[in-house]
Amino acid sequence: MNIAIRYTQTILKGNKYLLLSVPIVALIGFFVVFLLSNQSTIENIQALSTETVHKNYPLLFTFSEKGAFVQSIALVILLPFLHLAFLQDLYPRPLDFNLPIGPKNRFISYILLSIVVYVYNLLIICLFNYLLQFYLQFRFMDDIKEAYDVLGYLYSEIPDNTLLFNGQINSLVFMVGLTFSHCYLSF
C-alpha cells in the first residue's frame, strides 16, 4: 500500500496541471450546463439587471421560485469520468522509475488517484453552487423581499429549494456522491 501511495504522489507531483485542470473543467462544465438548462433563468437575470429605476415585482416573485440547479449532481458524476478517460496518458511506464511497482499496487494507485479527482471535483462543484447562491442573494434578495411585500405575500417565505438557496442542493450532491463512491469502491 505504501508503494501505491508513493506512486500516486509521484503522479500528482509530475502532473501538477491535473490539479489545475479539475477546477477548470468543473467551471466550464458548470457554466455550460447552467446556460443550457436554465435559459429562462438567465433571461430573467438579464431582465432584472437592466431594470434599475422601475422594479418588475411579478418577475422578481417568479424568479424567487426558480428551482435549484439540480443538474450539478450529474456534473459530480460525469466530470471525473472525463478526467479519468484521459488519465492513462498521465501514468508513466514503471520502467521510467526506480520505484518497483507491481500490478496490484498500480491498480491501488489508479483507485487512489480516481478518488482524489472525484473528491476534488465534488468539492469544486459544491463551491460553485455556493458561489451561485451568494451572487444571486447579493444581487437580488433585497428586491425580492420588497416584491413579496408589495405583492401582498407578507407572511410567505422564499422557498428553500430555489435557486436563491442553491447551496442547499449540496446536501443532495454529497449524498449522491457518497452513494456513487460507495458503489464504486464496493465494485
Overview of this protein structure:
The protein has 187 residues and is an all-alpha fold. It has 7 helices and no strands. It has helices at residues 2-14, 16-37, 39-50, 57-64, 72-85, 103-150, 169-186. 23% of the residues are buried. The mean pLDDT is 81.
Give the gist of this structure.
The chain has 7 helices and no strands. By secondary structure, the protein is mainly alpha-helical.
Structural class of the secondary structure composition? mainly alpha
Distance between the termini: 19 Å
H/E series = HHHHHHH
Number of helices: 7
- Rg (C-alpha, Å): 22 Å
Described by the principal axes of the CA atoms, the overall outline is: elongated
Strand content: under 5%
Q: Residue ranges: pLDDT <50 for 5 or more in a row?
A: none
Number of strands: 0
Biggest beta sheet summary = none
Mean pLDDT: 81
Helix content: over 70%
Indicate the topology.
Blueprint: H1 2-14, H2 16-37, H3 39-50, H4 57-64, H5 72-85, H6 103-150, H7 169-186
Helix pairs in contact: 1-6, 2-5, 2-6, 4-6, 5-6, 5-7, 6-7
Keywords:
187 residues; mainly alpha; 7 helices; 72% helix
